[in-house]
Amino acid sequence: MQEPKEIIAFYNLENFFDTKDDPHKNDNDYLPHGSNHWTENRYLGKVEGITAAIESIQPEKLPIVIGVAEIENSTVLKDLIYQPAFKGEYKYVHFDSPDRRGIDVALLYNQNLVQILESEKIPVRINGNSHFATRDILYVKAKIKQDNVHFFVNHWPSRGEGIMASNPKRVAAAECLHNKAKQILNQDKEAKILIMGDFNDLPVSKSISKHLQAKAHKNITEQQFYNLAAIPYQKKMGSLFAKKHWLMFDQIIISKGLLTGKGIRISAPRLTIHGDRSLLYFDQQAGIYKPNRTYTYHTYHGGASDHLPVYVALD
How many domains would you assign to the chain? Predict the structure, then answer.
């Protein structure tokens, strides 16, 4: 029997709110008397659904690191890692960010296998505009086995106001991220950097390919990155379904140190989209399977998320 792999995953949890009113966040839709009728039973169902989704990635062993997006606060993270599947082995890194919707990113990790060395949040600013509010980028430096790995968890500004109108915001996020990554690579050209998140852009978008310098090929320089989502994207695969198309917004991107360096590496140079049947429903009108989301606008479906998890395995 093959040994279970050490897996690193990313999962957008689609508006993972608790049921308590936070006057400092725009959580009114996700209250028992809000427009989504977000009751305790529905919330607990989502906690269990997310747990089952993560378990299904590799039933023998949970991912040792899981980046997550669209979480409201530390309460939902605690409720998640207290589920029996996590066996009391997981902790998390999370900072509150200024996002107007009140959603953040976080990093879950198995404390028996991963040691956190440092962490910080990286604000995203456009031309120094302190009034622009979006999710911070989460930076975590961790030790796995004998190697240091630098993690960045992202949830870049959405395309809600239109692709072109919102593009400068994603470019700003890319440049903030690249500046921090460059600092690390200037100190150690073989640094092992893993960038993951919901980028609300495609692998070929300029924010990623040009401003972040994440390439679709392995022949990269020491200050460029390899986008493990490039192959699935080229095969017209995606992590979420919107406007009649699969979109590859959820991506994992690595530095040369994780591609060809010594020590731990990514065992297969591509990511896997976890499209387990339990996470999908059959849309009879469209004639295809789609991620079973929690809500469509204010209609409750009871699924775990409108995104599918993506992951890579360590060698």
Answer: 1
